[in-house]
Design brief:
Layout lengths: L2 E10 L4 E6 L14 E5 L4 E12 L2 E6 L5 H5 L5 E4 L21 E4 L4 E9 L6 E6 L11 E4 L5 E5 L4 E4 L8
Length: 175
């Protein structure tokens, strides 16, 4: 299980269908996973399921697993994370990267200041937002995460081998 592709929100209907928020760049890639096995990871357990059907509803993907027949079975998977093996991942083009490769990156500004480590990614409708845990905080101040939108103006370079992201911080973003 290498790649997260979605987060289960809730059930849909009575026959075991699930509403999934896609965490992949191309939600239509779920079509390629029909009849493939995926993993649903919950707090302390992982289950293996086969995708039977895929439908789309606004910004969500409706998935039916072969192993689930009713709403009660499906409800047990609420809040689970859907992951796939690397063998099912979409091949990368030049200048592309997997989101999982960003976690743990050092984030540095174009002025040479080390902001901290990228610890999370927020998936919003417009663009992803990178959550950076500050490297240094002033004495007596509470550590406050830095939120950086993935826009051309803010993200200047992502160096996967060096585990470093170069960013430009517009005036007022850190206030």
């Amino acid at each position: 299980m290498d790649f997260e592709i979605g987060k289960i929100r809730t059930t849909h209907g009575l026959k075991g269908e699930l509403k999934v928020f896609p965490t992949t760049d191309d939600p239509k890639r779920f079509d390629q996973l029909k009849n493939k096995q995926v993993y649903v990871v919950q707090e302390r357990q992982t289950g293996k399921y086969t995708i039977q059907t895929v439908r789309y509803q606004k910004d969500l993907v409706l998935i039916k697993f072969k192993e689930l027949d009713d709403i009660d079975q499906a409800a047990k998977l609420r809040s689970g994370v859907i992951k796939i093996d690397k063998s099912l991942a979409v091949p990368l083009e030049d200048d592309e990267f997997y989101l999982k490769d960003l976690y743990g990156m050092q984030v540095v500004t174009d002025t040479g200041e080390t902001l901290g480590e990228l610890t999370d990614i927020m998936f919003t409708g417009a663009n992803n937002v990178y959550v950076v845990e500050p490297a240094v905080t002033a004495p007596g101040k509470k550590k406050k995460d830095i939120l950086i939108p993935h826009t051309k103006q803010c993200i200047l370079d992502i160096d996967i081998p060096a585990k470093q992201m170069l960013v430009h911080i517009p005036k007022g973003l850190l206030d």
